[in-house]
Amino acid sequence: MSIVALIPAFPFAGALLIFLGWRMKGRTAAIIGSAAVGLSMASAITLASISSLSPQSGSAFGLVLWNWLQVGSISVPIGLAVDALSIVMCLVVTVVGFLIHLYSVDHMAGEEGYGRFFGYMNLFVGSMLTLVLADNLLLLYLGWEGVGLCSYLLIGFWYRESANGRAARKAFIVTRIGDISLLVGIFLLATSLGSLDIQEIGRRAASAWPLGSPIASLAAALVLGGALGKSAQLPLHTWLPDAMAGPSPVSALIHAATMVTAGVYLVARTNALFALAPAVQLAVAIIGAATLLVAGWSALFQTDIKRVLAYSTMSQIGYMFLALGLGAWTGAIFHLAMHAFFKALLFLTAGVIINALHHEHDIFKMGGLARRMPFAFWVFLIGSLGLTALPPVTSGFASKDAIVARAWTSGDPGHLLWIAAMLGVLITSAYTFRLLFVVFAGRGASAANAANAAHGSAHEGGQELARPGPLLTIPLGILAFFCLIGGLVDFPRILGGVPWFGTFLGTALPPAREAEAGGGSELALALASLGTSLMGILIGALLWRRSLKPGFVSPSSGIASFFKKGWGFDRIYAVLFQTPFEWLCRVNRRDAVNLASNGIGTANLAFSRVLRSSQTGMIRWYVAFLAVGGALVIAAAVIL
Amino acid sequence: MSASGYLGLLPLAILAGSAILVLFGLAFARQRYETAFALSMAGLVAALASLFFAWTGAPQRFTALLVLDHFAYLSMALSIGATIVVEFMSFAYFRARREENGEFYFLLQLACLGCAVLASSSSFASFFLGLELLSTPLFTLIGYRREREAGLRSAFMYLILAGVSSAFLLFGMALVYLETGSLDITTAARAASGSASFTVLAGLALMTVGIGFKLAVAPFHVWTPDIYDAAPAPATAFIATASKGAMAILLVRFFAPAGIAGAGPFAWIFAAIAGISMFTGNILALREGNLKRLLAYSSIAHLGYILVAFVASGNQGSAAVSFYLVAYFVSNLAAFAAVAGLSTNEAEADSIEHYRGLAKGHPWAAAALTASLLSLAGLPLTAGFMGKFVIFEAGAGAFLWVLVVILAVNSTISIFYYLRVVSALYRPASEAGTGSMSPRPAMPALAAIALAAMAIAIIVIGAMPGSLMAFIREVARDIASNAAAAL
Q1: In this predicted complex, what is the ipTM?
Q2: How confident is the model at residue A1 (pLDDT cuts 50, 70, 90)?
Q3: What is the rounded average pLDDT of the residues A250-273?
Q4: What are A213-260's pLDDT values in tens digits?
Q5: Do A248 and A107 form a contact (C-beta atoms < 8 A)?
């Protein structure tokens, strides 16, 4: 099982090779980058098959590579933990990562900084794998910061446009708030429990802290703060829509499939803490429910194809948090895995469309693409069905319905949460199908023709656009296939499924603490959510019809614009934090604190000038130094 | 003396013998610089290898002059390793004028022998002998490029200053001998730790001047920038590492176990020297535009850090000094390997301006130099971080809170000037070409090997220090018990 060390080692090695051979030919970088992630995937699959053939229950297989620091009783090993949870995460990261790397080979071809792109992507995959494999919180935090750095670098990949740089900084700063919270949480756990090992922390916390004690709640809340920032949940969610400034593969890998779900992983990994803090766990559920509604509602008003998907991502992660909050640990991870596949598929297809239309992001300038890009249409449809949890696509159907059902059966606050989840189902299918109809249905918007004319391209409205190459279609095809059958690994029992996935994860995560709902109500719940989804499709269709009316303009003012801009959170934060901060800075520019901090620098530099004047280069002066120094030492030795 | 006793002397014998061989080689074939290099390298490698055989016989005393224990061998390994790296650099550095550089290797090897004697000496006689064996070749090494006036001038400066400091040292030894009647260093150190007389205290104080000069700690540091700047880069690298390292080892070896560092007037004196050195070195470096001078100033501060661990004393302090020396050696050698490799016959690559845009032309060299500078600054995942970490641990363990705080403050100050160099590496080369050479010379293979090896060592020690740390702690535990047994 030591093969686990190879899983993060390959991408790191790839990144190193690419960075140090900075000017290597673009193709070479792409091959190294993809091969590194491919090898990592092969190792992860090997590991998964080994461990599923001989499943271990209870504690994980740990591999301590070496000990980094040792201070007193706290040691920081570079150690990896292999259990069902980390195996699932590794598989998701490497499989989706590999497919996205393949896709990028073609998609990013000809971009400036092609090699740089693959270097950053490999670094990202390596850091993400470190995060999910770490057996202690400090190593996890190292991976956590690594993925944050890569996210920043890749959002600002096209750095020549200042808006992209701003988006990158925003993402970095907003997630940083969460990171600090996590770091303080780690400090708290290390000082009060005397260990950084995640398993050990769980054990010690359970014995040292009573249920619902303030310190347990504080620790859980601080960890949750980190998770909220990384996973773009309320109130730290504002960075994700802007993060779409990065290339599409980046949005697919980092801002949909893997990094933003790190928060979900973190909460699942530290479930022992949350079990001790029921209030915080309830907060997780409420935040999840609120986010899924707020973000889903915003998605209904977006006109940029990638922003629709970004809000949808927030909303889906909201479902995962809801599941975590309800104690459905395996359900949350299951939805995480399924979401990774269908959301990556949607983003990558969007990337194909955007490239085919000369970087057009506005969905109202698309239209009628079903005939012009049939392949894109079919895979996008599969992804959309996954997102709306509709059969025959099994992935979302299996995972999301489980969460919704779980909300119903979980007692008192559950029913309110269930209503939120059902509303979410309705909104999800409404925005998804609005997007699908607007982009693909009809004869093609007149705006699209106008855009084509403006670009001076030859193809007419009805003609098929250039077919994407095999390096684009094969990853899309594989992802679509996974979406179609993925849900079968944990299909509802009522429909003849077997919960393999849940059983496997059950070796690493505590079971859901509740009695299974009866078969009848499970079926009723499934049917209810199915009906809700279909209703949502109808709403989506209506929204599309409305946009076809002559004289329709996409919302630019009023309440619709308010929702489009994400409920004005940016405005609120600007007023609450940014403006006062900037005002304070302006007013305080010449204050005492500043004087002190600048004074240190000035004093140092001035002192430096004085000291440098002693460096005369004259021997007699230097000998005098020796003599005076000697006299001082003798005097000190005698007097002391 | 048993056979294993002579086996213990093998490293020193090989160093001395092969130095003479190199000299003979040069006498018969003056032009054969490769022969000199190969002979000297063979001697160094053989000496390094013989340490493994000598290791098992340790500890033992060889007459009244030398004590050959694990700690001595460890420091010999450090000096010899550093010399090997320096010879690699030298071969690259003198690539355009090879016919004249044969003696350089002989002198380096002789100085290395001086370091080895110094680190294993147990008496004032061998102490002084080792010191002079180390210093004398350095005069020539510093002024080796005699067509340069600055080099010659600095060689004379070092000659005079080293002479003066040796006078201090000798007079100090004489005073101590006068009182104790013994040339044994441990005895002398013991004498000072008790209720010592004026004579002994004054003697030790005078010796401190001599030692401080060699270590280049404030206020005996003034020579450093001029010598560093004027000497050829490989010679500078040797002065910065092997020469200072041997003296630091000697200091730890005899003064720390005797308790002289932990208490009494000399604890205060060394603490003051440490504090002043940290501040002086770092503040002097802030505005420096010349990389070699910058490294000189920073080395003053680094020796100050080492003295913090020295004052902390005890096993932990000794181990911290040794570990920090390793980190300091690899980081400095990497930096000087870059300087040596990028210098040409016409111009020394010393101006920071010169390094602008290095990442474009030499991405690997820039990455390695970055690793070295970050390690000197003490950023995590580098050897320098682990080194500072163990010094912190030792300082905190001995409750030297003031010194530990000064160390932390100074680490912060130092980051400023190290990052200034790093940022230059990744900035585009200046258009006007002020100070930057164009076209930049290719990195010679041997310098590149030295640079890469040191950079890898920096990262490996920084990321997985466990086994090295355990080894050094083991060896450090040795000195205390040996010193106790010796008396």
Answers
A1: 0.83
A2: low
A3: 87
A4: 888 889 899 999 999 988 888 888 888 888 888 888 888 888 888 888
A5: yes
**Contact residues, A window 55-84, toward B, CB-based 8 Å cutoff:** 65-71, 78
Q: What is the mean pLDDT of residues B357-372?
A: 86
Helices (H), B222-264: 224-230, 233-238, 244-255
pLDDT tier for residue A325 given thresholds of 50, 70 and 90: confident
- Length reported for chain B: 487
Which chain B positions have a beta carbon within 8 Å of A18's beta carbon?
Answer: none
Q: What is the mean pLDDT of chain A?
A: 81
Q: How would residue B456 be classed by pLDDT, with cut points 50, 70 and 90?
A: very high
Task: Determine the pLDDT at residue A635.
Answer: 87
Assess whether the previous peptide bond of A235 is cis (omega < 30° from 0): yes
Confidence (pLDDT) at A354: 85
Closest to A261 (Cα-Cα) out of A189, A334, A174:
A334
**pLDDT at position B84:** 95
Whether A279 shows a pLDDT value over 60: the answer reads yes
Distance CA A574, CA A446 (A): 38
Domain that holds residue B186: 3-486
Q: How many CB pairs under 8 A join A and B?
A: 110
Distance from CA of B135 to the nearest CA of A (A): 17
Across the strands, what pairs with A66?
A78
Q: How far is A488 from chain B (nearest CA, A)?
A: 43
Interchain contact, A638 vs B202, CB within 8 Å: yes
DSSP three-state, residue A82 = strand
**pLDDT tens sequence across A612-639:** 888 777 888 888 888 888 889 888 887 8
* DSSP output for B67-86: EE-HHHHHHHHHHHHHHHHH
CB within 8 Å of chain A, chain B residues 149-168: 156-157, 160-161, 164-165, 168
Q: Which residues of A touch B175 (CB under 8 A)?
A: none
Task: State whether residue A65 is helix, strand or coil.
Answer: strand
- Cα of first residue to Cα of last residue in chain B, in angstroms, is 21
Rounded to an integer, what is the distance from CA B49 to the centroid of its chain? 21
CA dist A558 and A590 (Å) reads 42
Q: Tell which A residues from 556 to 615 touch B, by Cβ distance under 8 Å.
A: 604-605, 607-609, 611-612, 614-615
Residue pair A417/A324 in contact (Cβ under 8 Å)? The answer is no
H or E element, residue A70 = strand A61-71
C-alpha to C-alpha distance for A215 and A231, rounded to whole angstroms: 24
- Structure-token pair, residue B328: 């300091």
Distance CA A340, CA A333 (A): 10
Mutation target among A20, A75, A600, A608 for the B interface, most CBs of B within 10 A: A608
The residue type found at B67 is: V
The domain total for chain B is 1
Q: Residue ranges of the domains in chain A?
A: 1-276, 286-555, 599-639
Inter-chain contact A619–B212, Cβ cutoff 8 Å? no
Classify strands B66-68 and A61-71 as parallel, antiparallel or unpaired. Answer: unpaired
- Sequence letter at residue B293: R
**How would DSSP label each residue in A281-307?**
HHHHHHHHHHHHHHHHHHHTT--BHHH
Q: Are A240 and A308 in contact (CB under 8 A)?
A: no
CA distance A593 to chain B (A): 18
- Provide the pLDDT for residue A448: 47
- Please name which of B256, B237, B229 lies closest in space to residue B320, comparing C-alpha atoms: B256
Is A404:A429 a contact under the CB 8 Å cutoff? no
Of the two residues A118 and A416, the one the predictor is more confident about is A118
Q: The pTM is what?
A: 0.79
Which residues numbered 174-213 in B keep a CB inside 8 Å of some CB on A?
198, 201-202, 204-206, 208-209, 212-213
What does pLDDT average to over chain B?
86
Predicted pLDDT at B83: 95
